[in-house]
Amino acid sequence: MSSLPDISVALGWKPGPVDKELDENVLAKLPSGTKVVSISPSGASAWVQTVRIETFVPDGRQVVYFMKGAPGDRGREMMNGTFESEKMVHKYAPDNVPEPIAWGTYKSMQDTHFYICVFRDMVDDLPSVGKLGALVSKLHLDSMGKSPGGKYGFHVTTHLANVPNDNTWCESWEEWFTNAMRRMIQAEEISHGHDDKLKELTDALFTKVIPRLLRPLETGGREIRPCLIHSDLWPGNVKLDAETDRLLIFDSCAYWGHNESDLGPWRAARYRLGRPYMRDYHKRIPKSSPEEDWDDRNLLYAIRYDFLISALFPQDPRFRDMAMDGVRYLVEKFPSGYEGGERMKSRSAGSDTPLALEQPTMAA
User: Fold this and answer.
1) Which residues contact 102 (CB under 8 A, 6 or more apart)?
2) In angstroms, rounded to a whole number, what is the distance separating the alpha carbons of residues 174 and 211?
3) Are 102 and 66 in contact (CB under 8 A)?
4) Which of 191, 244, 309, 323 could form a disulfide with 314 if both were Cys (CB 3.0 to 4.6 A apart)?
């Protein structure tokens, strides 16, 4: 990621200085009698301020917390969403998620909001194939079929970086993903401006490609059992605990959805994950039916993250170009949408011959 521009400049906002004293409302969220030893910067983020809080609790134990904060209505929504998301993921992976403590609003700054969790010292290495596949598949399997009413969505707004998701509850996966993709493309357009060719491509994405690739998952006797999705599984949010060597996942943007959608970020070469991680994951959870659509579904899920990165870097056209290449490939492959795709599959049943299109590069 070293070649990417400074995201804080791209977003037009930089966190302020670290407070020297803990705000009264923050302290109230910690155990009664907690004594604060130090507050220091922790990590780096372009859209929130992050600090490490060292404390002693009344029984003499040292407890260290991580806190992040952001201003305004968006900041309040982000901190609430972070807490609810991390709390849900922690429920199903308690040993692998820093324990969420609370969220709230500063007493001293009524327009600034915070989230607190237990601090875990981490090693900044790429996770092993087996550890990541085992953890993510366990999260999915343990939560599968447990979404409220069997629906897709989440009970609060969550954010990828500072971009809000449309988590409105939906009866079908196709409907939820359409809403989520539409919201992401709208955010990208705000960042980069309108483009007629992009509009033409994304219109076809919504009317042709998404129905063609996602509707078959829940028709023809097939079904999806929604599971809890972390939805931001790139290496920056997946690290080893320095003390226990246990794999940790954090900064989730949770929703209940199709398990394969969590693999979307792994496709991007910039994250150094890719096929080995996906193969290991699918040894534990088989590819959804129709299996022959798997690679195109994965590309579809990856495109949403390409639009996200494009939204975050308005001065860099590379990521819009990357997203458009992916959309163009799928639009050209599925020009007739769901109905045409069903007819084509009927005619070519048993054939493994791919269409003669150049597919966007996937991480090896």
Assistant:
1) 29, 83, 115, 116
2) 7
3) no
4) 191
* 355, two tokens: 């269409």
Tokens at 188, concatenated: 């990208």
DSSP state letters, 35-55: EEEEEEE-S--SSSEEEEEEE
- Can you give the pLDDT of all 364 residues of the chain as single tens digits? 333 333 233 233 334 444 457 899 999 999 999 999 999 887 655 557 889 999 999 999 999 999 999 999 999 999 999 999 999 999 999 999 999 999 999 999 999 999 999 999 999 888 889 999 999 999 999 999 999 999 999 999 999 999 999 999 999 999 999 999 999 999 999 999 999 999 999 999 999 999 999 999 999 999 999 999 999 999 999 999 999 999 999 999 999 999 999 999 999 888 888 899 999 999 999 999 999 999 999 999 999 999 999 999 999 999 999 999 999 999 999 999 998 755 555 544 444 444 445 556 565 5
Overall residue count recorded for the chain in this entry: 364
